[in-house]
């Protein structure tokens, strides 16, 4: 991998923070960015510089690139799910789409080596069946958040085709693990199980659950940064299978024996998708992606983070 400086955005979130830790451990020069430094910005004592950027301000991309000698960007910043800013959809577009557009333009001007940007499984929208979906499956988003991701992928393709910008989108399923603070069924099962509560989960008939552990996603990011040549501009990143609720609860119980769930139409309904499992063959081939962390092992690591968080 090129040893120039890597700018990582969204370090206040689970994925951005985990990517920083991974890159520093690999010996890379890293600059961390978000709206403001997160409370635990030391990121376990990694001592990386911080650059404030309130998306979509396009000028800040240029400032960061010039100031730190950035040649690659992992853009994990932005609105991270359809559960956020539901009463302000135009702001979702502003942050996610205009933010990406400003980055791609800066990458064109400064001739950056590579951009890794996070799309989402939500870009697919809901389908009439739950057959497996590959990267060639048409995108029909049914939320503004999903539309911002689908439109962002179109920008990635266009900037590459028209201007040679080397950018790639990772279409990620439901990522979980230490550090996730937005709605997460696996974390909810752990939190409730530790406190002797039964988790109330929406039954979500005709939908799938597709949870992928943070370390596996970070592995895909490393592969996307390191690959000399990418065969495509978008890659599915998920477990490669659909996971049902009883299976997930059984796995979480290996970390938290008290974990239990009951179907409730008023219960938590996020982290389900109206489509089949993501086909991840291309990511395995090109990025070395290997989603081999079991939910049980991921739940153990998440349990330790939850316990540490609650003791602070």
Describe the protein's topology.
Blueprint: E1 5-9, H1 14-25, E2 30-34, E3 50-52, H2 59-68, E4 70-75, H3 89-110, E5 114-120, H4 144-163, E6 167-172, E7 174-176, H5 185-194, E8 199-201, E9 211-213, H6 214-226, E10 234-237, H7 245-253, E11 261-263, H8 281-287, H9 295-311
Helix pairs in contact: 1-6, 2-3, 3-4, 5-7, 5-9, 7-9
Please describe what this structure looks like.
By secondary structure, the protein is α/β, with parallel strands linked by helices. It has 2 domains: 5-176 and 211-241 and 277-292, Rossmann fold (3-Layer(aba) Sandwich), CATH 3.40.50; 185-208 and 242-273 and 299-311. The protein is built from 9 helices and 11 strands. It has helices spanning 14-25, 59-68, 89-110, 144-163, 185-194, 214-226, 245-253, 281-287, 295-311; strands at residues 5-9, 30-34, 50-52, 70-75, 114-120, 167-172, 174-176, 199-201, 211-213, 234-237, 261-263. The protein has a 7-stranded parallel sheet, with helices on both faces. Helix 3 links the parallel strand 4 and strand 5 (114-120). It is globular and about 55 Å long. The model has no long low-confidence stretch (mean pLDDT 94).
Structural class: alpha/beta
CA-atom Rg in angstroms: 19 Å
Spell out the CATH superfamily of the largest domain: NAD(P)-binding Rossmann-like Domain
Mean pLDDT, all residues: 94
Strand numbers in spatial order across the main sheet: 3-2-1-4-5-6-10
